[in-house]
């Protein structure tokens, strides 16, 4: 079966790691941007559930006249979910990513979306982009690519910019406290990938490419850090294998 191309309006099939290749760190470059929708759908269990629920959560917590941010917006799936969850025309929605290749395609998806709320895209580092008056912020599988010593500072900036009653949606791949659970959940994740058509070679090479730049942490670590920077409650609203999505709430 041949790969579907953008000419047909469909994303290309992810075959980036299907043949032997020299080991190198994973990068969000043009080759990844071309296949990213297929890659994340087949690699992250529950992703197709998380995205529409971001719309639901946004609608629940967005405040009139506030700013909403999608930090690490990639091709804009969570940005568009947030957009459709915002009923107020005086809100500002901002997507931030440091990959120009990702943002180019993100802009295309936003232009095709039938919605009146404008979206501002910034090609910037999420660690330094300006944040203020935030009612809803999303880090959808983004924090795990920030170096661990720098994660608290980013979360502190988000917490400081969050209005009372505002929230952070944080989706992450996590690691577990015991070797047994870690091994079990990893095995199940790999079986999920195989069920979606990835070969053992693809699974192995992707893991080798990403293990030095994506560092998972425990749920307890995420929870304690979010509370330390100023969020009052941290809830896990979704989990499938070693992937979770949390809701960090700043009480009114």
UniProtKB/TrEMBL annotation:
Q: Which CDD domains match?
A: AdoMet_MTases (cd02440)
Q: From which organism does this entry originate?
A: Marinobacter fuscus
Highest taxon of source: Bacteria
For this protein, the parts annotated as crossing the membrane are none
Region annotation (Disordered) maps to: 1-20
- Gene it is expressed from: cmoA
UniProt entry tagged with the keyword ATP-binding: no
HAMAP family, per database record: Cx_SAM_synthase
Which family is annotated? Belongs to the class I-like SAM-binding methyltransferase superfamily. Cx-SAM synthase family.
Q: How does it assemble?
A: Homodimer.
Reaction(s) catalysed by this chain, per the record, are: prephenate + S-adenosyl-L-methionine = carboxy-S-adenosyl-L-methionine + 3-phenylpyruvate + H2O
SUPFAM superfamilies per record: S-adenosyl-L-methionine-dependent methyltransferases
Instruction: Report the protein's function.
Output: Catalyzes the conversion of S-adenosyl-L-methionine (SAM) to carboxy-S-adenosyl-L-methionine (Cx-SAM).
Q: What class of enzyme is it?
A: transferase
User: What is the name of the protein in this document?
Assistant: Carboxy-S-adenosyl-L-methionine synthase
């Amino acid at each position: 079966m041949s790969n579907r191309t953008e000419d047909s309006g469909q994303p290309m099939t992810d075959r980036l790691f299907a043949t032997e290749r020299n080991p190198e760190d994973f990068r969000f470059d043009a080759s990844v941007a071309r296949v990213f929708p297929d890659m994340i759908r087949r690699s992250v269990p529950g992703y197709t559930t998380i995205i529409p629920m971001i719309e639901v959560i946004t609608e629940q917590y967005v405040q009139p006249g506030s700013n909403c941010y999608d930090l690490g917006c990639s091709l804009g799936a969570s940005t568009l979910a947030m957009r459709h969850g915002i009923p107020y025309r005086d809100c500002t929605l901002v997507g931030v990513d440091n990959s120009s290749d990702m943002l180019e395609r993100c802009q295309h998806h936003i232009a095709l979306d039938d919605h009146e709320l404008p979206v501002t895209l910034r090609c910037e580092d999420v660690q330094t982009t300006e944040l203020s008056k935030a009612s809803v912020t999303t880090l959808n599988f983004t924090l795990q690519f920030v170096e661990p010593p720098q994660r608290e500072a980013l979360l502190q900036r988000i917490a400081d910019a969050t209005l009372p009653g505002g929230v952070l949606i944080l989706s992450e791949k996590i690691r577990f406290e015991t070797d047994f659970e870690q091994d079990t959940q990893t095995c199940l994740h790999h079986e999920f990938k195989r069920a979606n058509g990835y070969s053992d070679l693809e699974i192995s090479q992707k893991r080798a490419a990403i293990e030095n730049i994506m560092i998972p942490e425990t749920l307890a670590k995420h929870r304690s850090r979010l509370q330390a920077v100023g969020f009052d409650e941290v809830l896990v609203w979704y989990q499938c294998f070693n992937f979770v999505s949390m809701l960090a709430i700043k009480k009114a």
